[in-house]
């Protein structure tokens, strides 16, 4: 009888504790505004995902706080990542969305990275990304054979080291010997698209879901061609587009592509909170984030925008980040030589 009473008492205390926790979370977020700091310009893929998320996440968050998107573009989203780590209050009211490949820049010792990716409180990501390279028909390159044989480098737009639109061209140039001229300094893929349409550059390499969604008119009209993908396995809707790993002639080239591009695909669009955010608020937002990704209206809006959905949990992001810090030292040194600009 004593054992039964003890069990009932434990269950009662647990239920009361959970109810009190839910109530305290609702009290905290009620009437509040959560700011989503996106490290890229409006109109790109990161911005599109974040704005759709901001429209649906409040109803899954206790207290129904408002969510607003604040674009803090610059340095391949370093400005946003550094801000989240150094200057943002760890109170559960600021969510950061910067490109996860910046974690690789930390591994490589880039001094402009002023954060430790192992200390962020990760919420998760809406998708494991696939990467592609698209160029305008005006460039004279419409397939991989033409790119390999090009007599002048193909001009690709990029933001800054650590952004996949900068890192992928560098990896392709080093691993495959592709003729590439990387022109950096753009504040988002929307700006790269405009530059390509104006003839400043020939195109760029970034996430396929973003290219497919935001450059849809160019692809459908034939003005833009997807000439290469850079994925561990081919994207389901790009069966006839060449895959970079198949052009790697050496084991080192394959390792560079795998570690430099494939390994960061799952964390590219990750959302995070500042280090030190109270665990109860982290857990509340992790749950509301993942619940939002299952919301039928959210899913429908993503589908309408032609954006992929393949959720990654916060715990999975943490595990992927740890793996980047366990890469072979020899490959790390080679990647450092390729991806970190010489001063």
Topology:
Blueprint: H1 2-29, E1 33-38, H2 45-56, E2 66-71, H3 78-86, E3 94-97, H4 102-107, E4 121-125, E5 131-136, H5 144-149, E6 154-157, H6 164-176, E7 180-183, H7 189-197, E8 203-207, H8 208-214, H9 216-221, E9 224-229, H10 251-260, E10 271-273, H11 279-293, H12 296-304, E11 312-313, H13 314-324, H14 329-339
Parallel strand pairs: 1-2, 1-3, 6-7
Antiparallel strand pairs: 3-10, 4-10, 4-11, 5-8, 5-9
Helix pairs in contact: 2-12, 6-10
Describe the overall structure:
The protein has 343 residues and is of the alpha/beta class. It has 2 domains: 32-128 and 267-327, Bordetella uptake gene, domain 1 (D-Maltodextrin-Binding Protein, domain 2, 3-Layer(aba) Sandwich), CATH 3.40.190; 131-264, 3-Layer(aba) Sandwich (D-Maltodextrin-Binding Protein, domain 2). Helices cover 44% and strands 15% of the residues. It has helices spanning 2-29, 45-56, 78-86, 102-107, 144-149, 164-176, 189-197, 208-214, 216-221, 251-260, 279-293, 296-304, 314-324, 329-339, and strands spanning 33-38, 66-71, 94-97, 121-125, 131-136, 154-157, 180-183, 203-207, 224-229, 271-273, 312-313. The strands form 3 sheets. A 6-stranded mixed sheet has the order 2-1-3-10-4-11, sandwiched between helices. Strands 8-5-9 form a 3-stranded antiparallel sheet. Strands 6-7 form a two-stranded parallel sheet. Helix 6 (164-176) links the parallel strand 6 (154-157) and strand 7. The termini are far apart. 49% of the residues are buried.
